[in-house]
Amino acid sequence: MTNSELLQYCMNKPGAQQTVHSDWKATQIKVADVLYAMVHDVEQRPAVSLKASPELADLLRAQHQDVFPSAHLNKAHWSTVYLDGAIPDSQIYYLVDASYQQALSLLPQQTRQQLSD
């Protein structure tokens, strides 16, 4: 998977907005100003940082060498996943969906309702 393929998937989510964090050379994807994905290169490899529960983050890191704590974000909740590693695309898409759902859960009910209309 490439960064652009993942960006396209992320931007198809309702309410998705894209900004660039120039200091980190990363594209941030947010829903209503809540970050749910950060697409960037790590060690010249395509990667995405995604939010997960601390338990899931620990499990993923233990099972996959292509998953590790994010450098710029809260390491308990945010993991970086290499897009060109051994993790299947379908699992990466699942993790994006889970991160998006966590971001939605932080939004007020009215905002969530507007996004689902």
Report on this structure.
- This protein has 117 residues and is of the alpha+beta class.
- The protein has a single domain (3-108), classed as Aspartate Aminotransferase, domain 1 (Alpha-Beta Complex), CATH 3.90.1150.30.
- It is 38% helix and 31% strand.
- The protein has helices spanning 3-11, 54-63, 89-105, 109-116; strands at 16-21, 26-31, 34-42, 45-51, 67-69, 78-82.
- The chain has a 6-stranded antiparallel β-sheet.
- Strand 2 and strand 3 (34-42) form a beta hairpin.
- It is globular, with a radius of gyration of 13 Å.
- Keywords: DNA-binding.
- GO terms for molecular function: DNA binding.
Number of E-state strands: 6
Q: Separation of termini?
A: 30 Å
Helix fraction, binned, reads 25-40%
- Average predicted confidence as pLDDT: 94
Structural class: alpha+beta
* Strand fraction: 25-35%
